[in-house]
């Protein structure tokens, strides 16, 4: 019996050494969770039970459990490195074979899919063709690496103030090269269907109390006819309180524009143009079009107060073509792509999974686990929702192995091994003594 007891002790000490050695070997493995050998004593059973003073039959390895406590967050400055601060696992798919990991080594493959260092695709909420996030639809996250197509300007919104103390210019006629023929001016870029930028310039000329003319040139040319340098004109009237008189604007008859029932100035006849190489250059259509719906110009927030001319805000929705310049992932897992044209677009949202019993997950190597009956079904959600942790971009979660503890465990396992070997040696000596009796 004592031989078997000692042998079970050797096996247990060997298992303990194996577990501890594996922990030490993975002390530098990102996302690794240390294991712990758990032992139980053994007693021989009989039909009538073990009796009041049973003798033990040794030890057995009851379980090797993993400790899922948080590892340190190590910042790497690589935007696609991800760390989970709190509960949850990344969800990855290898041709439909789903696994879960805490190791956040992610990048993109040649097709733009976000993959880990084994080529498994990161899962998350995907986007449709319009860039809208499809909440609840989990699939392979993909970053659009192709050039972003240009968009023609459809809407231009400005908020500005015209100085009510200005006087009517005495120099006539209007000449964009002569600042004495107008009171103030401002410019912004608008775009055609090919992504070409055109300078949209407004010149404001006071014509009387609360009355102004807004002269418009695009690239210094008439919006309707690029062969002309004469502007299109929109009369602007302000109320006695300094607000734009929208009903008067609707009733006006601007040249080259129309005004809809909401007070939006519609530029529908613009012909995008460019000069040729002749001297002097001759202007003509550049081969692109304006937006099919025209350009809607919203000036309803304009004011006329006794302060200097200022443009408080300006926005337009057109842009030129752009190349992917970088990626950002926020703490809720939303993936943003930034382009060289100043635009950004949501590419998807990383999801995390959690389990009722994480100890029941089955480790499959490569710092990954798979679902088991004991773990229960995964609860999938976005970071920072429910009990799920936050996501940290540009960082990795270190192994939670504490080397000093493991080195002490090595010493203890070694002593246990030696002591159990001594049990076998002593039992062998006793047996030899019996064999030597004559």
What does this molecule look like?
Strand 13 and strand 14 (211-218) form a beta hairpin. This protein has three domains: 2-63 and 401-435, no CATH class; 73-147 and 328-397, no CATH class; 155-316, Tick-borne Encephalitis virus Glycoprotein, domain 1, CATH 2.60.98.20. It is built from three helices and 31 strands. Helix 1 packs antiparallel against helix 3. The two termini are 24 Å apart. The chain is rod-shaped, with a radius of gyration of 38 Å. With 438 residues, the chain is mainly β. Strands 5, 6, 9, 10, 23, 24, 25, 26, 27, 28 and 29 form an eleven-stranded antiparallel β-sheet that branches. Strands 11, 16, 17, 20, 21 and 22 form a six-stranded mixed β-sheet that branches.
Q: Indicate the low-confidence ranges by residue numbers.
A: none
- The helicity comes to 10-25%
Work out the number of β strands: 31
Instruction: Compute the number of helices.
Output: 3
> What's the level 1 CATH class of the largest domain?
Mainly Beta
CATH topology of the largest domain: Tick-borne Encephalitis virus Glycoprotein, domain 1
Instruction: Summarize model confidence as the mean pLDDT.
Output: 92
Q: What would you say the CATH architecture of the largest domain is? A: Sandwich
- Distance, first to last CA: 24 Å
Total domains: 3
Radius of gyration: 38 Å
Secondary structural class: mainly beta
CATH superfamily of the largest domain: Flagellar hook protein FlgE
- Major sheet details: 11 strands, antiparallel
What percent strand? 35-45%
Principal-axis shape equals: rod-shaped
């Amino acid at each position: 019996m004592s031989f078997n007891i000692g042998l079970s002790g050797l096996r247990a000490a060997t298992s303990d050494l194996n577990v501890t050695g594996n922990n030490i070997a993975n002390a530098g493995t990102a996302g690794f969770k240390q294991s712990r050998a758990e032992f139980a004593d053994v007693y021989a059973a009989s039909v009538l039970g073990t009796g009041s003073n049973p003798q033990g039959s040794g030890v057995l390895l009851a379980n090797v459990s993993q400790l899922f406590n948080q590892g340190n967050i190590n910042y790497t400055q690589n935007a696609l490195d991800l760390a989970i601060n709190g509960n949850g696992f990344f969800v990855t798919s290898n041709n439909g074979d789903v696994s879960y990991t805490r190791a956040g080594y992610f990048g993109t493959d040649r097709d733009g899919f976000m993959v880990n260092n084994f080529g498994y695709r990161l899962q998350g909420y995907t986007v449709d063709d319009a860039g809208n996030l499809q909440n609840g639809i989990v699939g392979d996250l993909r970053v659009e690496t192709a050039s972003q197509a240009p968009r023609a300007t459809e809407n231009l919104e400005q908020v500005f103030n015209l100085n009510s103390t200005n006087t009517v210019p005495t120099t006539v006629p209007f000449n964009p090269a002569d600042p004495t023929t107008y009171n103030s001016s401002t410019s912004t870029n608008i775009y055609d269907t090919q992504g070409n930028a055109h300078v949209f310039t407004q010149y404001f000329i006071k014509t009387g109390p609360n009355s102004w003319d807004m002269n418009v040139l695009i690239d210094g040319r008439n919006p309707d006819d690029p062969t002309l340098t004469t502007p299109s004109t929109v009369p602007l009237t302000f109320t006695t309180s300094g607000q734009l008189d929208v009903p008067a604007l609707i009733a006006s008859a601007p040249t080259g524009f129309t005004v809809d029932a909401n007070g939006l100035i519609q530029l529908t006849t613009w012909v995008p143009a460019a000069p040729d190489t002749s001297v002097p250059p001759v202007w003509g259509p550049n081969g692109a079009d304006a937006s099919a719906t025209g350009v809607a110009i919203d000036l309803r927030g304009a004011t006329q107060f006794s302060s200097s001319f200022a443009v408080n805000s300006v926005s337009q929705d057109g842009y030129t073509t752009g190349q992917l310049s970088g990626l950002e992932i926020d703490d809720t897992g939303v993936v943003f792509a930034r382009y060289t044209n100043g635009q950004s677009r949501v590419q998807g949202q990383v999801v995390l999974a959690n389990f009722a019993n994480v100890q029941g997950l089955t480790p499959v190597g490569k710092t990954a686990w798979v679902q088991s009956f004991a773990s229960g079904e995964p609860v999938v959600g976005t970071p920072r929702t429910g009990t799920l942790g936050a996501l940290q971009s540009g960082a990795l979660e270190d192994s939670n192995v504490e080397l000093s503890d493991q080195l002490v465990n090595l010493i203890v396992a070694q002593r246990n091994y030696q002591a159990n070997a001594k049990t076998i040696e002593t039992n062998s000596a006793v047996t030899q003594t019996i064999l030597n009796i004559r």
